[in-house]
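Standup notes, protein team

Yesterday: finished cleaning the Phytoactinopolyspora halotolerans set.
Today: Uma2 family endonuclease structure.
Blockers: none.

Input for Uma2 family endonuclease:
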Amino acid sequence: MALMPRASHDWTVDDLEQLPDDGLQYELLDGILLVTPAPIPLHQETVSELCVQLRRSCPRHLKALVAPLDWRPDTRTSLQPDLLVVARGDIGEQAIIRPPLLAVEVLSPSTGRKDRVLKFSKYAEAGVASYWIVDPARPSIDAYDLVDGAYVEAGSASGSDSVILQRPYPITITPAALVDI
């Protein structure tokens, strides 16, 4: 059983090491512990297909990676985007420390608010250059690029419509093609 740190009510990345490996996802956002149940098959199929597409187009100096992989911008935040694109030199032994060029969250019934509000805000604040939110239930994608410290819509699509996105590298995404299970 995990205990809150004694000297503070805030969790730190060091506290994550003491949590059980029980199939739940443990993340920190500004010292607050976020716990999410294991993803459903539709979520995982979407993540897998999108990863294949990202890797197919990925330039050699970048790497497309899949969760669970921690991005730790500070000692009180450890997030696990479903997918991320980083410069190869930014991959540490245990975590990604520099802001990803792209963070992707695939919505699940239990993660919509966290992904659309909390992570949206934190990713922008920490300098994540692009953020995509993919909804496999409708199927759709909303893509944002960081401009002057705030996210602006870079493109969106739903169903069998496609969107061409330029960041972190040119790629065409068709949401319906991500959920063919």
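Follow-up from PR in the comments: The longest strand covers residues 150-158.
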